[in-house]
Amino acid sequence: xxxxxxxxxxxxxxxxxxxxxxxxxxxxxxxxxxxxxxxxxxxxxxxxxxxxxxxxxxxxxxxxxxxxxxxxxxxxxxxxxxxxxxxxxxxxxxxxxxxxxxxxxxxxxxxxxxxxxxxxxxxxxxxxxxxxxxxxxxxxxxxxxxxxxxxxxxxxxxxxxxxxxxxxxxxxxxxxxxxxxxxxxxxxxxxxxxxxxxxxxxxxxxxxxxxxxxxxxxxxxxxxxxxxxxxxxxxxxxxxxxxxxxxxxxxxxxxxxxxxxxxxxxxxxxxxxxxxxxxxxxxxxxxxxxxxxxxxxxxxxxxxxxxxxxxxxxxxxxxxxxxxxxxxxxxxxxxxxxxxxxxxxxxxxxxxxxxxxxxxxxxxxxxxxxxxxxxxxxxxxxxxxxxxxxxxxxxxxxxxxxxxxxxxxxxxxxxxxxxxxxxxxxxxxxx
Amino acid sequence: xxxxxxxxxxxxxxxxxxxxxxxxxxxxxxxxxxxxxxxxxxxxxxxxxxxxxxxxxxxxxxxxxxxxxxxxxxxxxxxxxxxxxxxxxxxxxxxxxxxxxxxxxxxxxxxxxxxxxx
Lengths: 431, 118
Known about the structure:
The structure holds 2 protein chains of 2 kinds.
Chain A: H1 3-16, E1 21-25, E2 37-41, E3 51-55, H2 65-82, E4 86-88, E5 91-93, H3 95-104, E6 106-110, H4 115-123, H5 159-162, H6 165-168, H7 192-203, E7 207-214, E8 219-222, E9 229-230, E10 256-257, H8 260-281, E11 286-289, H9 300-310, E12 318-323, H10 339-358, H11 360-376, H12 385-403, H13 408-425
Parallel strand pairs in A: 3-6, 3-7, 7-12, 8-11, 9-10
Antiparallel strand pairs in A: 1-2, 2-6, 4-5, 8-12
Helix pairs in contact in A: 1-2, 2-10, 8-10, 8-11, 12-13
Chain B: H1 9-14, E1 23-30, E2 60-67, H2 68-76, E3 81-86, H3 87-94, E4 116-117
Antiparallel strand pairs in B: 1-2, 1-3
Protein backbone atom coordinates (compact mmCIF):
# COMPACT_ATOMS: atom_id res chain seq x y z
CA UNK A 1 0.00 0.00 0.00
CA UNK A 2 1.27 3.46 -0.82
CA UNK A 3 0.58 6.40 1.49
CA UNK A 4 -2.52 7.51 -0.46
CA UNK A 5 -3.97 4.02 -0.24
CA UNK A 6 -3.30 3.84 3.50
CA UNK A 7 -5.48 6.91 4.05
CA UNK A 8 -8.10 5.61 1.59
CA UNK A 9 -8.22 2.29 3.43
CA UNK A 10 -9.05 4.13 6.66
CA UNK A 11 -11.86 6.04 4.90
CA UNK A 12 -13.15 2.73 3.54
CA UNK A 13 -13.20 1.17 7.00
CA UNK A 14 -15.04 4.12 8.53
CA UNK A 15 -17.65 3.97 5.75
CA UNK A 16 -18.04 0.20 5.89
CA UNK A 17 -18.16 -0.17 9.68
CA UNK A 18 -19.64 3.16 10.89
CA UNK A 19 -20.89 1.66 14.16
CA UNK A 20 -17.62 -0.01 15.02
CA UNK A 21 -14.90 2.50 14.17
CA UNK A 22 -14.12 6.16 13.65
CA UNK A 23 -11.20 8.02 12.10
CA UNK A 24 -9.26 10.41 14.31
CA UNK A 25 -7.60 13.38 12.59
CA UNK A 26 -4.24 14.06 14.21
CA UNK A 27 -3.52 17.70 15.03
CA UNK A 28 -0.31 18.23 13.07
CA UNK A 29 0.48 17.92 9.40
CA UNK A 30 3.81 16.53 8.28
CA UNK A 31 6.54 18.74 6.82
CA UNK A 32 5.31 17.98 3.30
CA UNK A 33 1.76 18.93 4.33
CA UNK A 34 0.18 15.51 4.66
CA UNK A 35 -2.65 15.08 7.13
CA UNK A 36 -2.49 11.92 9.20
CA UNK A 37 -5.33 9.82 10.57
CA UNK A 38 -5.65 7.14 13.20
CA UNK A 39 -8.61 4.80 13.56
CA UNK A 40 -10.46 4.03 16.76
CA UNK A 41 -12.01 0.55 16.89
CA UNK A 42 -14.59 -0.21 19.56
CA UNK A 43 -15.98 2.04 22.27
CA UNK A 44 -15.28 5.74 22.71
CA UNK A 45 -12.00 6.40 24.46
CA UNK A 46 -12.63 6.81 28.17
CA UNK A 47 -11.04 6.23 31.54
CA UNK A 48 -13.47 3.37 32.15
CA UNK A 49 -12.23 1.11 29.35
CA UNK A 50 -8.62 -0.01 28.86
CA UNK A 51 -7.19 1.06 25.55
CA UNK A 52 -4.46 -0.16 23.23
CA UNK A 53 -2.45 1.96 20.80
CA UNK A 54 -0.69 0.37 17.81
CA UNK A 55 1.47 2.45 15.48
CA UNK A 56 3.47 1.64 12.32
CA UNK A 57 5.18 3.30 9.37
CA UNK A 58 7.76 5.04 11.57
CA UNK A 59 11.00 4.03 9.81
CA UNK A 60 10.31 4.61 6.16
CA UNK A 61 12.27 1.68 4.72
CA UNK A 62 10.66 -0.93 6.95
CA UNK A 63 7.93 -1.66 4.47
CA UNK A 64 4.93 -3.72 5.48
CA UNK A 65 4.06 -2.17 8.86
CA UNK A 66 1.12 -0.10 7.58
CA UNK A 67 -0.19 -3.08 5.58
CA UNK A 68 -0.13 -5.22 8.71
CA UNK A 69 -2.00 -2.64 10.78
CA UNK A 70 -4.66 -2.00 8.12
CA UNK A 71 -5.29 -5.73 7.72
CA UNK A 72 -5.44 -6.16 11.48
CA UNK A 73 -8.12 -3.45 11.64
CA UNK A 74 -10.11 -5.01 8.79
CA UNK A 75 -9.99 -8.48 10.28
CA UNK A 76 -11.00 -7.28 13.73
CA UNK A 77 -13.87 -5.21 12.32
CA UNK A 78 -15.30 -7.82 9.97
CA UNK A 79 -15.08 -10.54 12.63
CA UNK A 80 -16.74 -8.25 15.20
CA UNK A 81 -19.56 -7.42 12.83
CA UNK A 82 -20.06 -11.03 11.75
CA UNK A 83 -19.69 -12.26 15.37
CA UNK A 84 -17.23 -14.87 14.21
CA UNK A 85 -13.74 -16.03 15.06
CA UNK A 86 -10.60 -15.74 12.94
CA UNK A 87 -8.02 -18.27 11.76
CA UNK A 88 -4.48 -17.69 10.52
CA UNK A 89 -2.65 -20.88 9.62
CA UNK A 90 -2.55 -22.92 12.83
CA UNK A 91 -3.62 -20.02 15.06
CA UNK A 92 -7.29 -19.41 15.78
CA UNK A 93 -9.28 -16.89 17.76
CA UNK A 94 -12.82 -17.80 18.80
CA UNK A 95 -15.85 -15.59 18.35
CA UNK A 96 -15.69 -15.02 22.12
CA UNK A 97 -12.10 -13.78 21.83
CA UNK A 98 -13.16 -11.26 19.21
CA UNK A 99 -16.17 -10.23 21.28
CA UNK A 100 -13.92 -9.75 24.34
CA UNK A 101 -11.73 -7.36 22.37
CA UNK A 102 -14.70 -5.48 20.93
CA UNK A 103 -16.55 -5.18 24.24
CA UNK A 104 -13.73 -4.70 26.71
CA UNK A 105 -11.02 -2.79 24.87
CA UNK A 106 -10.72 0.38 22.82
CA UNK A 107 -8.14 -0.14 20.09
CA UNK A 108 -6.54 2.81 18.29
CA UNK A 109 -4.32 2.19 15.26
CA UNK A 110 -2.07 4.72 13.54
CA UNK A 111 -0.91 2.85 10.42
CA UNK A 112 1.52 5.41 9.04
CA UNK A 113 3.25 7.78 11.44
CA UNK A 114 5.76 9.00 8.84
CA UNK A 115 4.01 9.29 5.45
CA UNK A 116 6.61 11.71 4.06
CA UNK A 117 9.42 9.25 4.69
CA UNK A 118 7.41 6.25 3.48
CA UNK A 119 6.50 8.08 0.26
CA UNK A 120 10.16 8.95 -0.29
CA UNK A 121 11.17 5.34 0.32
CA UNK A 122 8.48 4.13 -2.09
CA UNK A 123 9.41 6.52 -4.88
CA UNK A 124 13.02 7.68 -4.48
CA UNK A 125 15.46 5.92 -2.17
CA UNK A 126 14.07 2.72 -0.74
CA UNK A 127 16.71 2.71 2.02
CA UNK A 128 15.47 5.99 3.57
CA UNK A 129 14.75 5.72 7.30
CA UNK A 130 13.99 9.21 8.67
CA UNK A 131 11.23 11.75 8.05
CA UNK A 132 11.76 14.50 5.43
CA UNK A 133 12.04 17.58 7.63
CA UNK A 134 14.95 19.66 6.26
CA UNK A 135 15.20 22.00 9.31
CA UNK A 136 18.64 20.65 10.30
CA UNK A 137 19.91 19.91 6.80
CA UNK A 138 22.87 21.42 4.96
CA UNK A 139 22.63 22.67 1.35
CA UNK A 140 23.81 20.13 -1.20
CA UNK A 141 23.80 17.27 1.32
CA UNK A 142 20.55 15.35 0.87
CA UNK A 143 21.49 12.79 3.54
CA UNK A 144 21.25 15.54 6.18
CA UNK A 145 17.50 15.87 5.61
CA UNK A 146 15.23 14.29 8.18
CA UNK A 147 15.06 13.13 11.76
CA UNK A 148 14.84 9.57 13.08
CA UNK A 149 11.38 9.69 14.61
CA UNK A 150 12.15 6.78 16.90
CA UNK A 151 14.98 8.72 18.55
CA UNK A 152 12.97 11.93 18.98
CA UNK A 153 10.73 11.05 21.95
CA UNK A 154 11.47 12.52 25.34
CA UNK A 155 13.15 9.55 26.99
CA UNK A 156 16.82 10.18 27.80
CA UNK A 157 16.81 12.18 24.55
CA UNK A 158 19.95 14.15 25.46
CA UNK A 159 21.98 10.96 25.13
CA UNK A 160 25.45 12.43 25.52
CA UNK A 161 24.51 13.57 29.01
CA UNK A 162 22.74 10.40 30.10
CA UNK A 163 24.74 7.59 28.49
CA UNK A 164 28.16 6.10 29.02
CA UNK A 165 30.72 7.23 26.40
CA UNK A 166 31.14 3.61 25.34
CA UNK A 167 27.44 3.52 24.43
CA UNK A 168 27.37 6.85 22.62
CA UNK A 169 30.10 5.64 20.26
CA UNK A 170 27.53 3.44 18.50
CA UNK A 171 25.23 5.54 16.34
CA UNK A 172 22.46 2.97 16.74
CA UNK A 173 21.87 4.58 20.15
CA UNK A 174 21.26 8.00 18.56
CA UNK A 175 23.21 10.74 16.84
CA UNK A 176 23.31 14.51 16.93
CA UNK A 177 24.65 14.64 13.37
CA UNK A 178 21.95 15.26 10.75
CA UNK A 179 23.74 13.05 8.19
CA UNK A 180 23.34 9.98 10.38
CA UNK A 181 20.32 7.75 9.99
CA UNK A 182 19.65 7.94 13.75
CA UNK A 183 19.74 11.76 13.97
CA UNK A 184 17.58 12.54 17.00
CA UNK A 185 16.54 16.04 15.96
CA UNK A 186 17.28 19.47 17.47
CA UNK A 187 15.19 18.73 20.57
CA UNK A 188 12.87 16.09 21.95
CA UNK A 189 9.48 16.21 20.19
CA UNK A 190 10.85 18.58 17.56
CA UNK A 191 8.95 16.61 14.91
CA UNK A 192 5.26 16.75 14.06
CA UNK A 193 5.22 12.95 13.80
CA UNK A 194 6.31 12.37 17.40
CA UNK A 195 4.01 15.14 18.64
CA UNK A 196 1.09 13.43 16.88
CA UNK A 197 1.86 10.14 18.64
CA UNK A 198 2.21 11.92 22.00
CA UNK A 199 -1.12 13.67 21.37
CA UNK A 200 -2.79 10.31 20.80
CA UNK A 201 -1.30 8.94 24.03
CA UNK A 202 -2.56 12.02 25.85
CA UNK A 203 -6.10 11.39 24.57
CA UNK A 204 -6.15 7.90 26.07
CA UNK A 205 -6.54 8.17 29.84
CA UNK A 206 -6.42 4.43 30.35
CA UNK A 207 -3.79 3.46 27.81
CA UNK A 208 -2.53 0.11 29.09
CA UNK A 209 -0.76 -1.33 26.04
CA UNK A 210 1.31 0.29 23.31
CA UNK A 211 3.01 -1.36 20.36
CA UNK A 212 5.24 0.15 17.65
CA UNK A 213 5.72 -2.02 14.55
CA UNK A 214 9.19 -2.17 13.02
CA UNK A 215 11.36 -4.67 11.20
CA UNK A 216 13.76 -6.68 11.07
CA UNK A 217 14.63 -8.98 13.93
CA UNK A 218 11.74 -11.33 14.78
CA UNK A 219 11.53 -9.94 18.31
CA UNK A 220 8.82 -8.64 20.61
CA UNK A 221 10.84 -6.04 22.50
CA UNK A 222 9.82 -4.87 25.98
CA UNK A 223 11.26 -2.04 28.06
CA UNK A 224 13.83 -0.91 28.89
CA UNK A 225 15.96 -0.06 25.90
CA UNK A 226 18.60 2.10 27.61
CA UNK A 227 20.15 -0.58 29.80
CA UNK A 228 19.57 -4.01 31.26
CA UNK A 229 16.56 -4.41 33.55
CA UNK A 230 16.90 -4.90 37.30
CA UNK A 231 14.18 -5.30 39.92
CA UNK A 232 15.94 -4.68 43.22
CA UNK A 233 17.09 -1.07 43.37
CA UNK A 234 14.43 1.61 42.73
CA UNK A 235 17.04 4.35 43.00
CA UNK A 236 18.89 3.12 39.97
CA UNK A 237 16.47 4.61 37.49
CA UNK A 238 16.42 6.91 34.49
CA UNK A 239 15.03 9.70 36.67
CA UNK A 240 18.09 9.68 38.93
CA UNK A 241 20.62 12.25 37.79
CA UNK A 242 23.31 10.55 39.91
CA UNK A 243 23.71 8.00 37.17
CA UNK A 244 24.04 10.37 34.25
CA UNK A 245 26.90 9.26 32.04
CA UNK A 246 26.62 5.62 33.07
CA UNK A 247 23.71 4.22 31.09
CA UNK A 248 23.95 1.93 28.10
CA UNK A 249 27.25 0.18 28.90
CA UNK A 250 26.08 -3.41 28.98
CA UNK A 251 27.50 -5.55 31.75
CA UNK A 252 28.53 -2.74 34.07
CA UNK A 253 26.93 -1.90 37.42
CA UNK A 254 24.16 0.41 36.14
CA UNK A 255 20.87 -1.26 35.31
CA UNK A 256 17.43 0.24 34.82
CA UNK A 257 14.84 -0.37 37.53
CA UNK A 258 11.51 -1.96 36.77
CA UNK A 259 9.11 -3.28 39.40
CA UNK A 260 9.25 -7.08 39.60
CA UNK A 261 5.51 -7.38 38.97
CA UNK A 262 5.73 -5.03 35.99
CA UNK A 263 8.60 -6.94 34.49
CA UNK A 264 6.68 -10.17 34.88
CA UNK A 265 3.60 -8.66 33.23
CA UNK A 266 5.66 -7.14 30.40
CA UNK A 267 7.43 -10.43 29.68
CA UNK A 268 4.23 -12.47 29.93
CA UNK A 269 2.45 -10.30 27.38
CA UNK A 270 5.47 -10.27 25.05
CA UNK A 271 5.51 -14.06 25.26
CA UNK A 272 1.78 -14.22 24.50
CA UNK A 273 2.25 -12.03 21.42
CA UNK A 274 5.27 -14.02 20.23
CA UNK A 275 3.48 -17.34 20.82
CA UNK A 276 0.50 -16.22 18.73
CA UNK A 277 2.78 -15.29 15.82
CA UNK A 278 4.85 -18.43 16.15
CA UNK A 279 1.71 -20.59 16.15
CA UNK A 280 0.71 -19.52 12.63
CA UNK A 281 3.49 -21.39 10.80
CA UNK A 282 6.36 -21.76 13.23
CA UNK A 283 8.23 -18.53 12.58
CA UNK A 284 10.59 -18.15 15.56
CA UNK A 285 9.31 -14.91 17.08
CA UNK A 286 10.55 -14.40 20.63
CA UNK A 287 10.29 -11.91 23.49
CA UNK A 288 13.43 -9.92 24.18
CA UNK A 289 14.31 -6.99 26.38
CA UNK A 290 14.70 -4.01 24.09
CA UNK A 291 18.32 -3.38 25.03
CA UNK A 292 19.07 -6.90 23.79
CA UNK A 293 19.01 -5.56 20.24
CA UNK A 294 21.22 -2.58 21.10
CA UNK A 295 20.91 0.32 23.58
CA UNK A 296 18.54 3.04 22.45
CA UNK A 297 17.12 6.33 23.64
CA UNK A 298 14.30 8.61 22.54
CA UNK A 299 12.21 5.63 21.45
CA UNK A 300 8.44 5.40 21.51
CA UNK A 301 8.19 2.29 23.70
CA UNK A 302 10.45 3.54 26.50
CA UNK A 303 8.84 6.99 26.38
CA UNK A 304 5.39 5.45 26.68
CA UNK A 305 6.34 3.13 29.55
CA UNK A 306 8.21 5.95 31.30
CA UNK A 307 5.27 8.35 31.29
CA UNK A 308 3.71 7.00 34.47
CA UNK A 309 7.08 7.18 36.24
CA UNK A 310 7.54 10.82 35.36
CA UNK A 311 3.88 11.67 35.97
CA UNK A 312 2.18 9.21 38.36
CA UNK A 313 -1.24 10.54 37.37
CA UNK A 314 -0.86 8.95 33.94
CA UNK A 315 -1.84 5.38 33.22
CA UNK A 316 0.90 2.77 33.32
CA UNK A 317 1.36 1.49 29.78
CA UNK A 318 3.19 -1.75 29.04
CA UNK A 319 5.00 -0.88 25.85
CA UNK A 320 6.52 -2.89 23.02
CA UNK A 321 8.36 -2.68 19.75
CA UNK A 322 7.55 -5.57 17.45
CA UNK A 323 10.31 -6.28 14.94
CA UNK A 324 8.58 -8.32 12.25
CA UNK A 325 10.33 -10.67 9.85
CA UNK A 326 13.85 -12.03 9.92
CA UNK A 327 17.24 -11.60 8.29
CA UNK A 328 17.11 -14.24 5.60
CA UNK A 329 19.93 -16.58 4.68
CA UNK A 330 20.60 -14.84 1.39
CA UNK A 331 21.00 -11.58 3.33
CA UNK A 332 18.49 -9.59 1.34
CA UNK A 333 16.76 -6.61 2.86
CA UNK A 334 13.15 -5.55 2.52
CA UNK A 335 11.82 -8.99 1.71
CA UNK A 336 8.41 -7.53 2.50
CA UNK A 337 8.56 -5.81 -0.88
CA UNK A 338 7.82 -9.24 -2.34
CA UNK A 339 3.99 -9.52 -2.35
CA UNK A 340 4.13 -13.20 -1.35
CA UNK A 341 6.45 -12.51 1.58
CA UNK A 342 4.37 -9.50 2.57
CA UNK A 343 1.16 -11.55 2.56
CA UNK A 344 2.77 -14.26 4.70
CA UNK A 345 4.18 -11.63 7.08
CA UNK A 346 0.77 -10.02 7.52
CA UNK A 347 -0.70 -13.44 8.36
CA UNK A 348 2.09 -13.98 10.91
CA UNK A 349 1.82 -10.64 12.67
CA UNK A 350 -1.93 -9.88 12.78
CA UNK A 351 -2.51 -12.74 15.28
CA UNK A 352 0.16 -11.16 17.48
CA UNK A 353 -1.74 -7.88 17.48
CA UNK A 354 -5.01 -9.67 18.30
CA UNK A 355 -3.25 -11.49 21.16
CA UNK A 356 -1.95 -8.15 22.40
CA UNK A 357 -5.48 -6.73 22.49
CA UNK A 358 -6.75 -9.82 24.30
CA UNK A 359 -4.12 -9.11 26.97
CA UNK A 360 -5.47 -5.62 27.62
CA UNK A 361 -7.79 -6.51 30.54
CA UNK A 362 -4.96 -8.38 32.27
CA UNK A 363 -2.60 -5.47 31.60
CA UNK A 364 -5.17 -3.06 33.01
CA UNK A 365 -5.49 -5.15 36.18
CA UNK A 366 -1.71 -5.38 36.58
CA UNK A 367 -1.33 -1.69 35.84
CA UNK A 368 -3.85 -0.69 38.50
CA UNK A 369 -2.38 -3.08 41.07
CA UNK A 370 1.22 -1.97 40.78
CA UNK A 371 0.53 1.66 39.92
CA UNK A 372 -1.23 2.27 43.25
CA UNK A 373 1.97 1.18 44.97
CA UNK A 374 4.06 3.51 42.82
CA UNK A 375 1.84 6.48 43.54
CA UNK A 376 1.72 5.86 47.28
CA UNK A 377 5.47 5.51 47.36
CA UNK A 378 5.33 2.13 49.06
CA UNK A 379 8.20 -0.27 48.68
CA UNK A 380 7.93 -4.03 48.24
CA UNK A 381 7.46 -5.73 51.59
CA UNK A 382 10.63 -7.76 51.09
CA UNK A 383 12.68 -4.56 50.96
CA UNK A 384 13.44 -3.81 54.56
CA UNK A 385 14.87 -0.40 55.28
CA UNK A 386 18.22 -1.92 56.19
CA UNK A 387 18.38 -3.93 52.98
CA UNK A 388 17.67 -0.84 50.93
CA UNK A 389 20.52 1.01 52.64
CA UNK A 390 22.90 -1.89 51.96
CA UNK A 391 21.68 -2.06 48.37
CA UNK A 392 22.28 1.66 47.94
CA UNK A 393 25.84 1.40 49.19
CA UNK A 394 26.61 -1.68 47.08
CA UNK A 395 25.18 -0.03 44.02
CA UNK A 396 27.19 3.13 44.55
CA UNK A 397 30.38 1.18 45.12
CA UNK A 398 29.77 -0.69 41.89
CA UNK A 399 29.14 2.56 40.07
CA UNK A 400 32.35 4.02 41.50
CA UNK A 401 34.35 1.03 40.24
CA UNK A 402 32.88 1.53 36.79
CA UNK A 403 33.85 5.19 36.53
CA UNK A 404 37.05 5.24 38.61
CA UNK A 405 39.25 5.09 35.52
CA UNK A 406 36.99 7.19 33.32
CA UNK A 407 38.77 10.38 32.23
CA UNK A 408 37.55 13.77 31.08
CA UNK A 409 34.50 15.73 32.09
CA UNK A 410 32.20 12.70 31.74
CA UNK A 411 34.21 10.86 34.39
CA UNK A 412 34.27 13.88 36.69
CA UNK A 413 30.56 14.40 36.29
CA UNK A 414 29.83 10.71 36.98
CA UNK A 415 32.01 10.71 40.09
CA UNK A 416 30.35 13.88 41.40
CA UNK A 417 26.97 12.21 40.85
CA UNK A 418 28.02 9.13 42.77
CA UNK A 419 29.33 11.21 45.68
CA UNK A 420 26.00 13.02 45.79
CA UNK A 421 24.29 9.64 45.86
CA UNK A 422 26.48 8.51 48.77
CA UNK A 423 25.64 11.68 50.70
CA UNK A 424 21.94 11.09 50.05
CA UNK A 425 22.06 7.41 50.99
CA UNK A 426 23.96 8.01 54.23
CA UNK A 427 21.99 11.08 55.26
CA UNK A 428 21.05 10.76 58.91
CA UNK A 429 23.06 7.56 59.30
CA UNK A 430 26.65 8.74 59.28
CA UNK A 431 27.79 11.64 61.47
CA UNK B 1 38.70 -3.45 -18.74
CA UNK B 2 38.05 -6.21 -21.19
CA UNK B 3 39.16 -8.76 -18.61
CA UNK B 4 36.44 -7.72 -16.16
CA UNK B 5 33.83 -9.06 -18.53
CA UNK B 6 35.42 -12.52 -18.41
CA UNK B 7 35.50 -12.75 -14.63
CA UNK B 8 32.96 -14.96 -12.87
CA UNK B 9 29.94 -12.94 -11.76
CA UNK B 10 30.95 -12.92 -8.07
CA UNK B 11 34.48 -11.67 -8.74
CA UNK B 12 33.26 -9.16 -11.27
CA UNK B 13 30.89 -7.78 -8.65
CA UNK B 14 33.70 -7.58 -6.11
CA UNK B 15 35.90 -5.55 -8.42
CA UNK B 16 33.14 -3.45 -9.95
CA UNK B 17 33.90 0.25 -9.99
CA UNK B 18 32.60 2.06 -6.92
CA UNK B 19 31.09 5.47 -7.63
CA UNK B 20 31.65 7.89 -4.72
CA UNK B 21 28.23 9.50 -5.02
CA UNK B 22 26.27 6.25 -5.13
CA UNK B 23 24.82 4.29 -2.24
CA UNK B 24 25.59 0.60 -1.85
CA UNK B 25 24.31 -2.30 0.23
CA UNK B 26 27.37 -4.04 1.63
CA UNK B 27 28.74 -6.61 4.04
CA UNK B 28 31.77 -5.63 6.13
CA UNK B 29 33.66 -8.37 7.95
CA UNK B 30 34.19 -7.96 11.69
CA UNK B 31 36.57 -10.16 13.66
CA UNK B 32 35.18 -12.07 16.68
CA UNK B 33 36.40 -9.43 19.14
CA UNK B 34 35.43 -6.32 17.22
CA UNK B 35 32.39 -4.21 18.02
CA UNK B 36 30.36 -2.27 15.48
CA UNK B 37 31.62 0.94 17.08
CA UNK B 38 35.03 0.37 15.50
CA UNK B 39 33.36 1.24 12.18
CA UNK B 40 31.73 4.43 13.46
CA UNK B 41 33.95 6.75 11.46
CA UNK B 42 32.67 5.24 8.20
CA UNK B 43 29.06 6.33 8.93
CA UNK B 44 27.44 3.08 7.86
CA UNK B 45 23.66 2.73 8.02
CA UNK B 46 22.97 -0.52 9.81
CA UNK B 47 20.23 0.24 12.36
CA UNK B 48 17.45 -2.38 12.24
CA UNK B 49 19.07 -4.03 9.21
CA UNK B 50 18.69 -7.82 9.01
CA UNK B 51 22.04 -9.22 10.08
CA UNK B 52 23.48 -12.58 9.01
CA UNK B 53 24.44 -14.95 11.84
CA UNK B 54 28.13 -15.12 12.87
CA UNK B 55 30.39 -17.70 11.21
CA UNK B 56 31.63 -20.74 13.13
CA UNK B 57 34.92 -18.92 13.71
CA UNK B 58 33.10 -16.09 15.49
CA UNK B 59 33.71 -13.55 12.75
CA UNK B 60 30.65 -11.90 11.33
CA UNK B 61 29.50 -9.63 8.55
CA UNK B 62 27.83 -6.30 9.23
CA UNK B 63 25.04 -5.70 6.75
CA UNK B 64 24.73 -1.98 6.00
CA UNK B 65 24.07 0.75 3.50
CA UNK B 66 27.06 2.95 2.71
CA UNK B 67 28.02 5.63 0.22
CA UNK B 68 30.71 4.81 -2.32
CA UNK B 69 33.19 7.01 -0.45
CA UNK B 70 32.76 4.85 2.64
CA UNK B 71 33.20 1.63 0.65
CA UNK B 72 36.48 2.92 -0.73
CA UNK B 73 37.61 4.15 2.69
CA UNK B 74 36.78 0.79 4.27
CA UNK B 75 38.85 -1.04 1.67
CA UNK B 76 41.73 1.38 2.08
CA UNK B 77 41.60 0.65 5.81
CA UNK B 78 42.09 -3.03 5.01
CA UNK B 79 38.50 -4.08 5.59
CA UNK B 80 36.98 -6.92 3.62
CA UNK B 81 33.90 -5.43 1.95
CA UNK B 82 31.42 -7.31 -0.20
CA UNK B 83 29.19 -5.10 -2.33
CA UNK B 84 25.80 -6.79 -2.52
CA UNK B 85 23.95 -4.22 -4.57
CA UNK B 86 23.88 -0.74 -5.97
CA UNK B 87 21.19 0.53 -3.61
CA UNK B 88 19.89 3.12 -6.05
CA UNK B 89 19.38 0.52 -8.78
CA UNK B 90 17.85 -1.75 -6.16
CA UNK B 91 15.43 1.04 -5.21
CA UNK B 92 14.09 1.18 -8.75
CA UNK B 93 13.61 -2.59 -8.81
CA UNK B 94 11.90 -2.80 -5.41
CA UNK B 95 9.66 0.18 -6.05
CA UNK B 96 8.01 -1.57 -8.99
CA UNK B 97 5.87 -3.43 -6.45
CA UNK B 98 4.41 -0.16 -5.11
CA UNK B 99 1.34 1.08 -6.97
CA UNK B 100 1.34 4.68 -8.16
CA UNK B 101 -2.37 5.46 -7.94
CA UNK B 102 -5.11 4.72 -5.46
CA UNK B 103 -6.54 1.23 -5.82
CA UNK B 104 -9.11 2.08 -3.15
CA UNK B 105 -10.44 5.16 -4.96
CA UNK B 106 -10.52 7.45 -1.95
CA UNK B 107 -12.26 4.84 0.20
CA UNK B 108 -14.89 3.54 -2.23
CA UNK B 109 -13.21 0.15 -1.93
CA UNK B 110 -10.57 -1.34 0.34
CA UNK B 111 -8.45 -4.34 1.19
CA UNK B 112 -10.20 -7.53 2.26
CA UNK B 113 -8.19 -8.70 5.24
CA UNK B 114 -6.18 -11.90 5.52
CA UNK B 115 -7.80 -14.00 8.26
CA UNK B 116 -10.42 -16.67 7.62
CA UNK B 117 -13.74 -16.06 9.37
CA UNK B 118 -15.06 -19.12 11.11
